[in-house]
């Protein structure tokens, strides 16, 4: 296999959508995944049903040096999504969180550095590297928090915001984020970092701790009450996965020019919703508003996060195209069609927000 694309975490939500797009375009794709996250086996099965023998899968851990070396042979691009993805899991098992997110990323970078012609790498980081953002000047509107029009954050949080890692998850992803950037400076690798906001769309099996948009939709479909931690007016700039795939492909294509840089990637101000606004949107799709319960704030939850995407837009021309109403409709229809009697159980409470 020559000129292939390697996707670590390739059977996950984002990896599946990217692999599908690339395979449709005739690219050779290696799906690298240890299949540890619930639902990913179904994603890999779907990729094989759609694309048949074109799907090359390497079932292995991100810290398996021999498997990585084997998978990287003749690869020209790498997208690194393999991760431990939940803040709550990082709090209960920080050593595992570090091993997967920080050590796993460093293992991959070292494998790339050892190659004669290292492929480019696009890494998905998180907005959690900016911490709780407790200093943002917020006011309360009817259904959401807002920043003043004269605030420095009127366009959202940009990449000049100081890093402030919160939670073991924030530390492990933040460390990986910085290693990826530094391997461009120190070793000349073509590496790019995406600090992402809330991504949603088909092939997302949301849980209470990660993938909150899909989790809300699944809860509505199952008739399970949703628990909001805090007042529900937390704001996030949701980004439909197909728009993210566009951005990932652009970053991969222009990795040499973008190398060593970090970009905030999300729906931006035009696609910002609060939790209670999203529940109203789901209720309109479902024909009945989901039952909502409230509980205490969770430590480190950002009341307001919107990605200022102007840096990446200026560099590449990319901008999100899918409004939340259309994207959530597509997710609702996909989850409605995908639900089976053996589907993964939905927790009795709702979602933490990443």
Whole-number total of structural domains: 1
The helix fraction, in percent, is: 25-40%
- What does the radius of gyration come to? 19 Å
Spatially, the strands of the biggest sheet line up as 3-2-1-4-5-8-13
Terminal residue distance: 37 Å
**Structural class assignment:** alpha/beta
Report strand %. 15-25%
CATH superfamily membership, which one?
A: NAD(P)-binding Rossmann-like Domain
Segments where pLDDT lies below 50 for 5+ residues?
340-354
**CATH class (first level) name:** Alpha Beta
User: Can you summarize the main beta sheet?
Assistant: 7 strands, parallel
Work out the helix count: 12
CATH topology: Rossmann fold
What form results from the Cα inertia axes?
Answer: globular
CATH architecture: 3-Layer(aba) Sandwich
List how many beta strands DSSP finds.
Answer: 16
Mean pLDDT: 93
In sequence order, what are the helices and strands, one letter per element?
EHEHEHEHHEEEHEEHEEEHHEEHEEHH
Secondary-structure map:
Elements: E1 4-8, H1 13-24, E2 29-33, H2 40-51, E3 55-59, H3 65-71, E4 75-80, H4 87-92, H5 94-113, E5 120-126, E6 138-140, E7 145-147, H6 167-187, E8 191-196, E9 199-200, H7 212-222, E10 226-229, E11 235-237, E12 239-240, H8 241-253, H9 255-258, E13 262-265, E14 272-274, H10 275-286, E15 292-295, E16 304-305, H11 310-316, H12 324-338
Helix pairs in contact: 1-2, 1-8, 5-6, 7-10, 7-12, 10-12
What do these coordinates show?
By secondary structure, this protein is an alpha/beta fold. It has a single domain (83-338), classed as 3-Layer(aba) Sandwich (Rossmann fold), CATH 3.40.50.720. The chain has helices spanning 13-24, 40-51, 65-71, 87-92, 94-113, 167-187, 212-222, 241-253, 255-258, 275-286, 310-316, 324-338, and strands at residues 4-8, 29-33, 55-59, 75-80, 120-126, 138-140, 145-147, 191-196, 199-200, 226-229, 235-237, 239-240, 262-265, 272-274, 292-295, 304-305. A 7-stranded parallel β-sheet has the order 3-2-1-4-5-8-13, with helices on both faces. The longest helix is centred in the middle third of the chain and has 21 residues, at 167-187. The radius of gyration is 19 Å and the shape is globular.
